[in-house]
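Notebook B, p. 112. Complex prediction, attempt 2.
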Amino acid sequence: MEHADLREQVLEANLALGRAGLVVLTFGNASAVDGAAGVVAIKPSGVAYDRLTAAEVAVVDLETGAVVAGETRPSSDTPTHLALYRAWHDVGGVAHTHSAFATAWAQARREIPCYGTTHADHFAGAVPVTRALTAGEIGGDYERATGDVIVETFATLGLAPLEVPAVLVASHGPFTWGASVASAVENAVALEAVAAGAYRSVALTGELETIAAELHEKHFSRKHGASAYYGQPA
Amino acid sequence: MEHADLREQVLEANLALGRAGLVVLTFGNASAVDGAAGVVAIKPSGVAYDRLTAAEVAVVDLETGAVVAGETRPSSDTPTHLALYRAWHDVGGVAHTHSAFATAWAQARREIPCYGTTHADHFAGAVPVTRALTAGEIGGDYERATGDVIVETFATLGLAPLEVPAVLVASHGPFTWGASVASAVENAVALEAVAAGAYRSVALTGELETIAAELHEKHFSRKHGASAYYGQPA
Amino acid sequence: MEHADLREQVLEANLALGRAGLVVLTFGNASAVDGAAGVVAIKPSGVAYDRLTAAEVAVVDLETGAVVAGETRPSSDTPTHLALYRAWHDVGGVAHTHSAFATAWAQARREIPCYGTTHADHFAGAVPVTRALTAGEIGGDYERATGDVIVETFATLGLAPLEVPAVLVASHGPFTWGASVASAVENAVALEAVAAGAYRSVALTGELETIAAELHEKHFSRKHGASAYYGQPA
Amino acid sequence: MEHADLREQVLEANLALGRAGLVVLTFGNASAVDGAAGVVAIKPSGVAYDRLTAAEVAVVDLETGAVVAGETRPSSDTPTHLALYRAWHDVGGVAHTHSAFATAWAQARREIPCYGTTHADHFAGAVPVTRALTAGEIGGDYERATGDVIVETFATLGLAPLEVPAVLVASHGPFTWGASVASAVENAVALEAVAAGAYRSVALTGELETIAAELHEKHFSRKHGASAYYGQPA
């Protein structure tokens, strides 16, 4: 099997999304890039999670999106994933779900403010929401435009993708990413917990201030960057 | 066993409702029609899901509702299913649940507006709610009247059943359908996710606009009709 | 083992409460009465569900509460169960849980109005909430007073226990019952679904009218009494 | 294996947190102290629950925090646990989670008032919330400061740790404890049920009075202290 390692990682990541309760039916997909080979492995379109095999994982060209290995039609969201990989070279994997609470925030078209250290552990700031797509973008190359508006959002806000590895696409749902596809899935799990916690915190208080900048910085830097001391030594 | 294929499909569909967490106790039922044979197979009344067998699936006459195969009493909701099959010839299966969030919308007597692409992927417009039944309808052939009011709702709103394959019966709960009973179950799963997402979106925002018509049309047509490109080629 | 049948029924009922997700830790208990023998079998106090055996089920005297079989100390809520059995001779089993949504209504000290047919299928009217216990009742024979205030609530409201087989004890949680302990457990499951549905219906609408009396009566009588036609013939 | 018993208890407690659904990813940790030996066993940092073994449980010095057994880096929250053990000599185990509803209250920076007997069974009063940490505390020995502010909260409110064995750290999440680490885990489970019930009670009523002092005292003393009569005789 060509690109066997990449496809196995993508298979495992898609199965992990299912086990974590982040997807129902065939919603959602995860992918990984091999920048040197110029290819992306991604879930096939509309295949049930419990029947997925590594051989069914589609492999497409990073630049053109053409299928280069596998017998399946890749996820219809493939152009969104490709747009992210082409813009952000430090991203190794992307995950997309319609997870319950993150999708509620996306549908409400509200960013998720940082209300606690669970958020700060994973995301260096608020999880942003994109602008709505225009009628022209929707009628044109829609899935690519979805990726482009994510990249635009991060450029406009001056955010580094690996510091805030998640976005809410307005009226749609979350995308997360990471240095690897396993990290992208982990960020999808963390985002859903953060979205649920923020939803309930707002319900309890109406209005709520975000946490102190010092506390946010402290928790993010415990887990990320040169001064991190969370987890086992590499 | 007579009508073995139809009964196996209905058995599997009812078990799938249970596995998806859409039913508690013996609430809910799924059926499938064989239009050529003029029969409908449906869950027996009040039998626990974990003990159900294909031989216990009841088979009734599409026109009269008389039992034509099986030793069991069919679901008390059978006349509702029959009314839908007689009115809508492109419908092959029907599912009824008291799933948690869809039932909350039905009890609140509110249609579910389209707040995101999860909704647009499955339903071409808002999921409608029926009017309340009259005292005369409740006191007469109640279950048939429930089917008739669903058909009336779609006629009044000018909706095509397979474009919006779900309804909320006021003060009761959801019915879904599809070209097959498997599709009816899939729509029941999608409806519950959509109902939960809409509930939480409203909680976050109070008032919320529905999504752009272009976005709704784009997502529905990705999965349905001549220009669909979601899923694997048939 | 003395009263083996009764104890097996009570064991199975307690395990069913656990499987249905209605109890955490050692909260909750179920019991059954043998009126002819003048005994009640009930869960032992503070024993984890996953280790419970029929031999550990306590058997107590219906009138005095004295242990007549079994090596265990009976549930501390035993006097509440006994008060119900002594007042209501058609009740064969009682279940008590701290299930999530029913307990929220009990803590809010609000009855659960009938907002849909799921409710009407099981309960012939609103699920009532008791008055608060007085300081004297709390300081005296507290658990018996809890049973007495349930009986008082039904007498004051003129309710028949088997027509509304559930109550919310103010600031505490739900008790349910039935002709058998299996029916008491089924009503505990139904009550939790009804409580969750009502909670979400109120959240969607603020204020909400109860369903039409005709619809309530129709659904209750489909499942209960001489004209019932739900389920299989006995 | 040194301190084998202590490490086995800590392993089992951490696994129990996972089974109870109180942790996602690698959030959360539990520890136990051996006061005579002057050591604390605690979950290693950032290790997945499903792979954890007793040999990986870290053992640290109660006073200095230095690792005295085990090859792993202890949880980054270790200084918080140590601060509690050094201040409170009757505490044998501590658990920390980011459980969904307790974390929502912590993020909302609200104490959990006592709204029912589930609360009263486990906590002799409201579950308090700490003040926010200062920028200086966050920039200094942050995790130790987290422990110190918990101890300060209990001193200021005049609370006995084993009477209210839980706290909400503002903008962070819950810590619970007990005479043993198994009891600390049980209190974490109870706290999450209490937090969820209180959240929903407030949602139903807006404002809600706490329960009568007599009822609170009655339920707490049923399970705790000299007059307890819940559970089996020791």
